[in-house]
């Protein structure tokens, strides 16, 4: 029994719990992993999440789906087959991971329920088709 011990300051049972994340008893599952910005610029958490969706739904998002992005300033596609018209262009743009990617075409795509989407950039090296909310708002 500790009844004979004296405590300086507060009794241990009345002390505040330490919520400092650096003092967790169980290790964080992220500990030791590089952030997506420290490696080659790929946001692996997002990519892995999308891959999980593809597996669960049995679809290939790269070929069939469009991701809606509130931060994108332009529509982009990685799938040549989605374009109803395409002009060859050649320039680079900076994407979300701060890397520059080569744009090889610009044209129109048809999306069921939305109709014709103009000025979509064809960028084979991006992983997904992206619709820009900013550009969609300009259509209204």
From TrEMBL:
Q: Pfam families in the record, alphabetically?
A: Pol_BBD
InterPro entries, per this entry? Answer: PolX-like_BBD
**Comp. bias regions, Basic residues:** 22-34
Provide the residue span(s) of the region labelled Disordered: 1-46
Domain Retrovirus-related Pol polyprotein from transposon TNT 1-94-like beta-barrel as annotated: residue spans: 66-138
Identify this protein by name.
Answer: Retrovirus-related Pol polyprotein from transposon TNT 1-94-like beta-barrel domain-containing protein
